[in-house]
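Two folds, back to back.
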Amino acid sequence: MALPERAAAAGPIEVMIVDDSALIRQRLKSIIESDSRFRVVTAADPYEAVELLKRSVPGLILLDVEMPRMDGLTFLRKLMKQHPMPVVLCTDQAERAVTALEMGAMEVIAKPDWRDPAKMATWSTALLDSIRNAARAGRLPIREDRAPATSETRNSADSVLPKLPYIPRAGASTERVVAIGVSTGGVQALQALLPCFPADAPGMVIVQHMAPGFVGALASRLDKDPKIAIEVAEARHQEPIRRGRALLIPSDVHGLVRRTGTGYRVELVDGPKVCIQRPSAEVLFRSTAQAAGPNATGVIMTGMGDDGAGGLLEMREAGAMTIAQNEATCVVFGMPREAIRRGAAKFVIPIDRIAAAIMAWVAGADTGSWH
């Protein structure tokens, strides 16, 4: 698939919709073009998309999975090998969603209920947010409007968990715990990070921004990866955090780290979105600062926006070790950049050195060289 070079964008960013339903293509086109920063071209299947790509390269692609002649994942695999570009995948199938993210899709959004106007309004907003995020992640020249990219109310962590200092307790646990926040590009980042930990690594709690219903499939995929020595699972309410295990917070609830006896547990709570996310790394990091203080490490990795930056600063102020993934190894440097800007990250290091830095900290070794 030899494609022409993408022309410099002077006007709207071109979005190619690849879907076999003419009605859905038209409805998606109407939603996307409601934002004047985008214009849409459509293809009925991947073969038609290839012919269009030969003439003009879009800024990004919105791709269906189930199509005749060639399914969306096969097309995505070929596209990413021959001409990588930002792709938003639309599917309800969790396993396929995780596979697409592994292949390099920027975002995955669940299919809508076209029959429910109220739900469609919410879904349309989410779709536009995904398209904008993919454009920014692909470093496309998207104009920044004065109005925010989302109409959602922006809440702080205070709406879920009051800000309190870490209070040491006599005889309290010195068990270590690791809190990780990651978003766009996170599936590939976790696949690179987790294999670097030994089987006795500290217990971990992870917020990975994903559409509802997809986190369980990701946890299962990571747990079955033969390169990963630790266990990986979707967190359950009140589940203990233990060595050699990583827990992913489910979609659409917040995850908190709580002290319990000589260890820690995960608490899953409802609440408004924080930093436009649920689960939010901001909430996870704040709770970890309060529960574990200097016995914790906070890690903020690739992702769009600023979720987690304030919470990571609270962790550092509580004595925790704090790490930001460096720009060179991020798909999107937004979350780590904001954490660094606020002084939240004590260390800024490549993804392939993060696990070694944490294990050196666990062993009590000098971490001064981990920059």
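---
second:
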Amino acid sequence: MSGDKQSLAAPRGMRDFYPDEMALQCRITDTWRASAERYGFQRYDACVVESLDLLKRKAGEEIVEQIYAFKDKSDRDLALRPEMTPTLARMVAARQGSLDLPLKWFAIAQCFRYERTTRGRKREHYQLNLDIIGEPAVTAETEVIAAAVDALLQLGLSLTDFRVRISSRALLGDILAASGIPIEHHAATFLALDKRGKLPDEKIAELLTEAGVASEAQGGVFDVLGLTDLDQVRDLLKGRASAALAELEACCTGLTAYGLGDAIVFDISVIRGLAYYTGIVFEAFDTEGKLRAIFGGGRYDNLLASVGGRPQTGVGLGFGDVVVAELLAERGLTGSDEARGRITVGFMTIDQQPIARRMAATLRSQGEQVDLALHPEKPRAFFARADKRRFAKAAYIGPDDVTQGTVRIKNMVTREEEPLPV
């Protein structure tokens, strides 16, 4: 804004939550918590400021360009956490000898990334993290995916509104080996293929060449991405044993047993760009493909060792609030009607205020959410406010009510009135 007048907008990429917006935000985070606890996860949290060195060990030096990094007054290199996984790994490694494995932990964390803001991406967001540490079986993947899907369903979405695309980096490694791609080129190939859809195939081919993948082998790489089901994968492997294929099939079977089979799709192109993923990986998208990923994650069996702990298996996912809020808005599921459920109590003159106060106190003691008017109001102004703020019920006390000894509580939806003795 020009001149001396200060802008009243939030910093770019950050958000303010006014009460009506906070209602949806609370519904999302409350649903996350309920679903995580329903699936047996325990809640934890941590400091929002993290050691920059820890983030570099997990994501590499380039992470500095993507986050809010700074030095404190003692010249320590710190950062606002961009995600929760490195912090989780640090916390588990710090008490690895005393923790009872497997762990099933969840957090609802505010995270910060200094990135270009686009639809579905802010520089600040809240994220549900679900992690299982110390379980090598694919039941861990099944549980974290099922818990996240449960949250989507509890928010009002149906299995037709989204798809969980699932694959396996280990399986892709087996496929690339069967296609003649040397193992030393697998990591670079993963990174190149992860950019498919964001870059044209010609540019992907250039990245593969830079990674040392011979031009005659690149056709095989693109053929791999043409695989659409696990039967085709078996044919390509030509009878070779693949533990990764068996694990992926077991995970899909577990999700089908939960009744989620219709929402699960095998997609070999799901790679997840972060190098620490070692096995099954997955991402959920809206069915129409309009938005960014709703949630994503996978198995990371080497992460604890990378931050100084003992080697331990791990599976986790991150589920951000920005994209799911947009999806709920597109489906008309923002829950604006849920504001109803509260009661407001008003009065005409100061003489009725003591009765109104006693009434509010009684209703509150019964567990009701009650808004008590702060000053006298005329009936029309009081009921207009009650409607605008979407109260479920409204009780207005005037001189006649005191004289008659009866107060009427009006249902603001049906307009029916219920008499109650003063």
